[in-house]
Amino acid sequence: MTAKLSGPRLEAMSGRAKQLVVFLHGYGANGDDLIELAQHWRQALPDTAFVSPNAHELCPGAPGGRQWFALSAARGVDDARSAADRLKGAEAAKPVIDAFLDEELARYGLDDSRLALCGFSQGTMMALHVGLRRPRAPAAIVGFSGLLVAPERLAEARARDLRGAPPPILLVHGDQDPMIPLDAMFIAADALAAADLPTQWHLSMGVAHGIDGGGLKHAGLFLAKAFGVAPPRR
Q1: How crowded is the C-beta side of 69, counted as CA atoms within 13 Å?
Q2: CATH number, residue 204
Q3: How many domains does the chain have?
Q4: Boundaries of domain holding 47
Q5: Average pLDDT of the segment spanning 126-155
Q6: Is the pTM of this model over 0.85?
Q7: Number of H helices, E strands in the chain
Q8: Is 109 helix (H, G, I), strand (E, B) or coil?
Q9: Predicted pLDDT of residue 70
Q10: Which residue, 147, 174, 166, 173, is CA-closest to 226?
Q11: d(CA 142, CA 108)
Q12: Residue at 169 is within a domain
């Protein structure tokens, strides 16, 4: 039986959701960690509902924390065994997230063209892995401080919209990130571009493993464009 996810949400300010943003949190966190990002975007996206599910697995050593999959201990992100473990974990977690997305879209009477995935760290790994393999492409994928799982397997990334276009992707990363090096963003961007998957990136100067105001603003504008929402007038 597929695990059932739940977590905090914010309904559309307008009272009727025409778009849906799903946050996927990082390793050792939970849905509360990212739902507050919605407060930065609600004014610009008044018809958007936001939901931030708790991952289906408890995270050892992190009280109240969750994980999408276990991380390899004491091995760097470039280690081959770590890469294999990430792929195995992402593949196991994918059906859980897919089921949640299908349920949430049905809740609001929306389809994938009205869906955006927004991840942080391990959540970025899952947003890319799941979003690029949906039966229909989401409107957008935003990834903060993460990396691309199994770039050599992007032939599987066949999610397309009704026009045959892949989902637009935005990657945001701090140049001082000690946990997932900045190079991970450029490696992901290069691999995605080579697979003809449109990708933008934003570099947050002086930022470690986190999200700054510039990254939030860039992501908000990116989501508004993807949803076809006019940016607010200054």
Answers
A1: 25
A2: 3.40.50.1820
A3: 1
A4: 9-227
A5: 97
A6: yes
A7: 6, 9
A8: coil
A9: 94
A10: 166
A11: 21
A12: yes
